[in-house]
Amino acid sequence: MDHSTCPVCGSPLKVLFKLRFNVYKCDNCGLLNSDAQFEHSFESALEAGARDPGLKALRLQNFITIIAKLKAAKKGDLNGLEIGSGNGWWLETCQSQKVGCIGIEPEHVYEDYHQEKKLDVIYGFYPDVSPKKEGGYDFIIFNDVFEHIPDINSLVESLKQDLGDDGILIINIPMSTGFFYRIATLLHKFGMNGPLTRMWQFNFHSPHMNYFNESNMKVLLEKHGFNCAEVFKLKSLDIQSTKDRMLADKNMSKWKASLMTSALKVMKPAIDSSEPDIKAFFFKKRPGK
Ligand SMILES: [Zn+2]
């Protein structure tokens, strides 16, 4: 993949910093782009099982918010596609909210859980294994997945084909303008690389390829014939789940996790009133596109 020009606006990219991988910045639109690689052989520093309990409540709460907005925006029976279903929590939420959704997932780690919960998951990469739906899908959703995909322009073209004329593309994604990203950047300037490495997930086998802000996310989709219908903030901080998430990281000691949790409690009001760490975007195709 070429890292000389910005995949969103075509302006030159410049190296911003180097961690395990290089991170480039576009001075025009502010996109942050990395030359990280998806590593099938790489053993993740995150223990798969330990991740679940802390994160689940927070994620489900966000999914309920998204489904309520989706139902308000589009009446009638809904049949959608989720790209990158991971553990299947979104599909589970759809099941309980009577929303139809098929999941596509490249990894088999959660296959037993998918079967146990009777979730409709197809294993492989989008769009290669994607089932075609007559008239297109009512919605296609990415939950913390869009930022992991290397070729975003060809991805968006495929989405345009698979989405119904009236369909909604939902992108639920961490923001480079968010509180935690800013703090991680600040710590990096003081020589502490851990938090920024964690934000980019450079120690995991599926790292982030891009970090967007609200405006360059819109520019990317508008370029491909979409309009932004809605943007809203999602919850990123639940103190207990944050502590559990930190404990799930093998490199984090218990006392350090406790100390950081206490610090977060003090900062919570400031965090809640600053730029959101996670946003959800609803995009619709422009007529005739
Ligand atoms: Zn750009």
From TrEMBL:
Keywords of the record, alphabetical order, are: Methyltransferase, Transferase
Q: Where is the signal peptide?
A: none
Q: Enumerate the Pfam families for this protein.
A: Methyltransf_23 (PF13489)
Q: What is the lineage of its organism?
A: Bacteria, Pseudomonadati, Bacteroidota, Sphingobacteriia, Sphingobacteriales
Query: What CDD domains does this protein map onto?
Result: AdoMet_MTases
Which organism's genome codes for this protein? Mucilaginibacter ginsenosidivorans
Top-rank lineage group of the source organism: Bacteria
**What is the protein name given in its UniProt record?**
Class I SAM-dependent methyltransferase
Recorded GO molecular functions are: methyltransferase activity
